Amino acid sequence: MHRIGVITAGGDAPGMNTAIRAVVRSAIYEGLEVIGFEKGYEGLVEGQAIKMESRSVSGIINLGGTILKTYRCEEIKTPQGLRKAADVLEKCKIDGLVTIGGDGTFRGASGLHDVSKVSVVGIPATIDNDIAGTDTTIGFDTAVNIALSAIDKIRDTATSHERIFIVEVMGRKRGFLALEVGLAGGAEEILIPEIKFDLDKICNRLKQARKKGKTSEIIVMAEGAGDSHSMVDYIAKNSGYQVRLSVLGYIQRGGSPTAISRTLACQFGHHAVKMLVEGAEAKMVGIRDGKIVSVDLEYAWKEQKEIDLRLHKLAQVLST
Ligand code: F6P
Description:
The protein has eleven helices and eleven strands. By secondary structure, the protein is of the alpha/beta class.
């Protein structure tokens, strides 16, 4: 192994830059050259390559976003796109590729490995934390803390106005972010795609709670759990409360990564390079029970990660 490539792809996540820095500097430590491909697979297919030196990654450990930029690329899902990307890797004499992103990024990486036989190691970085084979992902803790700080503020106005707030958080089709934010923020309801809910039952419970002296509530809802606008209307009509919606949106993906996201990114970046040097072919680096592990790349994007439903029950018990 002489030269490796690195890309960030899919939705950005706070800590991606920390991971790029760790990959570049660990590779240099191992005596490897590093090429960064800009704009994810989009840039790889087009051959947008830049040589990365130790100084190329100075001052980025604390920066949100990704200095390599990221795109959602349709072409890499096609055999022609994979072929084009494989040709670029060959032309740039890349022996190993580190792909930083989520399940779509890893699906692309698996395809590339099949077509080019270039070794690939994935680094899980997504605020959704929806990657099998790792307990957590780069950016998840940062997004949880951003959403949590928003909920703490929303609670002030919810209490003052005696209103219900539905706070919609990201997470794509999964509820990892909503569950963690809901539990830590003391939400009275957490609506996630993994658990069926009945709006009539929720409205009845809200009415009962009001009779017992509860005057405001926070409902944390995962974006994948349904249409938040129609839920606001339904709950307002059937609960007797004034209901407001706050969609947190893209602020959850920006800003400086937390210490947890950064330390994870440092470890993942370092181990990804080590795995390539030691001969890994199509793997993802992950963390299980506090230990860094190597996971089959296909497992990471094909398997459904289990959500801890005990946290949902706990949030219910603690919010009565
Ligand atoms: O996967 C990260 C994520 O922020 C999801 O939570 C969200 O559903 C999606 O990306 C939004 O995608 P886009 O950046 O393409 O709008």
